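Per reviewer request, we include the raw input and output of the structure prediction for the construct analysed in the revised manuscript.
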Amino acid sequence: MTALSINLNKISLLRNSREGNYPNVLQHAQLCIDNGADGITVHPRPDQRHIRPSDVRELSALVQPLATVEFNVEGNPFAPAVDDYPGFIALVEQTKPDQCTLVPDNDSQLTSDHGFDLTQSGNALEPIIRRLKDQGMRVSLFMDPDLEQINLAFEIGADRVELYTGPYAAAWGSESAESLFHQHKEAAQLATSLGMGVNAGHDLNLHNLAKFASIPGLLEVSIGHAFIVDSLTMGMASTVQAYKKLLNQH
């Protein structure tokens, strides 16, 4: 069965639009967990547009004691310290999530929109991956469904890859959706054959997720934006249950 990890960035984005701590990120994480979420994901950026370092520390304290729920922190491994943001690697070393997903984003991007090009960054990433694994963290790399790149991810020691599903989601309902699905399926099959786990995320929702979840060996999906949008009409508890029900079919 594919695990469901809920990305809470949009809850913190809403909170940050006003003074105070409303909505409370920790309370919404607990609500997701109480209704069956298998994991909590956050993506702290140096500009702190949504998740803050203090959120990461509090969520770590909430999730880490739970045997059946995982904490996943994702972000740019090269993000430096800025003001009270300690730098991405320093933050994950402080909080030691179950999984650290490395993503090649920067502050000028609205959201993550491409995977690593390991022909360019592989040499720099390899010691970082080893360093995090030595501290007990599973390391996943945010990757496009490119077979050459998947091979390189294996060579530099990644435990998992998270396939970037943005183009698949954008093509949903069009003639190109099927070919994009097969690209992701082939990439997942290769990663699995090499001994890596396969995660996926970006713009997956209740319409396009069922087909994607049919990919054999898919271990985890991380869903944030669509989850929050669905929660506006369905309520958060019901939305967690709806996504879980869908994933439980595979």
